[in-house]
């Protein structure tokens, strides 16, 4: 597997996958995904850009969050990982990779639909890491539904609870701990700009995250806290097989991008590293698209 410092053709750097139809109960596990993902265990090489940083990452057990956690550790950061209790197998694997890099991994399982847990999560991360200066709001819920009439109140409310309400609560709780120089990076999506007809609830939360990011960035700039977002395109993660996509669409997942393939989680990690590092000190309120070439505004 090539690493991110090697000169490679982006079309062929990772395989053009055709995932078989498969189903996992929500939230899904990387350990059971076919084919497996590249989260950077072998392909991400750090250069010390986050040396000494202390980061809380939500949805950090698998997919994009796991890749970001590995990259942060390889760049020198200690990491608190949030995930659902049923994702423990994936979380333990990522914690092991972080510790192999010589960094601290703090495991903080819990449900982000619980408002009290969101606030307690921040306090537990601060205690476990000895402070906090980087927050990555990455956890997301995505359930594909054919028509609006099929979305019941519970799905609508749970999607907003995880994707936007938890982001507000965690960020609000974190602010009293974040010193000048701290960073917040939120995971949005190309769905904020190009909503799929089967993802009306999910896509609308991602548009809200874009707006939240830009407004909060202006509010916190005088305090020296930078807020930005990353907008992934079609990235192969357990989210897609736990009802995140229609099952019949899985074999063609990501093939409509200009690169002709789905992205791997590790391809997102450098964007989060850049926005968290001091290299991006003049970047605020930005949504950095990592979409395989699919255009965004």
Automatic annotation (TrEMBL):
Residues 1-11 have a biased composition (Polar residues). Residues 1-45, 238-262 are annotated as: Disordered. One of its GO terms (molecular function) is oxidoreductase activity, acting on CH-OH group of donors. Pfam families: adh_short_C2. The keyword Oxidoreductase applies. InterPro entries: NAD(P)-bd_dom_sf, Sc_DH/Rdtase_CS, SDR_fam. It comes from the Bacteria. Keywords: Oxidoreductase. Belongs to the short-chain dehydrogenases/reductases (SDR) family. This is NAD(P)-dependent dehydrogenase. It comes from Brachybacterium paraconglomeratum.
């Amino acid at each position: 597997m090539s690493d991110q410092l090697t000169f490679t053709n982006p079309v062929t750097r990772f395989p053009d996958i055709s995932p078989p139809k498969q189903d996992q109960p929500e939230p899904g596990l990387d350990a059971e995904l076919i084919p497996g993902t590249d989260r950077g265990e072998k392909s991400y090489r750090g250069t010390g850009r986050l040396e000494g940083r202390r980061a809380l990452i939500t949805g950090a057990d698998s997919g994009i969050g796991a890749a970001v956690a590995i990259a942060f550790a390889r760049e020198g950061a200690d990491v608190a990982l949030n995930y659902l209790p049923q994702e423990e197998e994936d979380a333990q694997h990522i914690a092991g990779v972080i510790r192999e890099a010589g960094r601290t991994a703090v495991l903080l399982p819990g449900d982000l639909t619980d408002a009290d847990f969101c606030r307690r999560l921040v306090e537990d991360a601060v205690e476990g890491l000895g402070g906090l200066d980087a927050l990555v709001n990455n956890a997301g819920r995505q359930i594909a539904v054919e028509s609006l009439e099929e979305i019941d109140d519970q799905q609508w409310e749970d999607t907003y609870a995880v994707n936007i309400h938890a982001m507000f609560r965690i960020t609000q709780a974190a602010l009293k701990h974040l010193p000048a120089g701290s960073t917040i990076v939120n995971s949005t999506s190309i769905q904020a700009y190009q909503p799929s007809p089967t993802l009306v609830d999910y896509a609308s939360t991602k548009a809200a995250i874009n707006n939240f990011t830009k407004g909060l960035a202006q509010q916190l700039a005088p305090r020296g806290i930078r807020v930005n977002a990353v907008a992934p395109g079609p990235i192969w993660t357990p989210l897609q097989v736990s009802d995140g996509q229609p099952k019949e669409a899985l074999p063609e997942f990501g093939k409509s991008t200009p690169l002709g393939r789905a992205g791997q989680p590790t391809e997102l990690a450098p964007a989060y590293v850049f926005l968290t590092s001091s290299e991006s000190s003049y970047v605020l309120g930005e949504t950095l698209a990592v979409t395989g070439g699919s255009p965004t505004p």
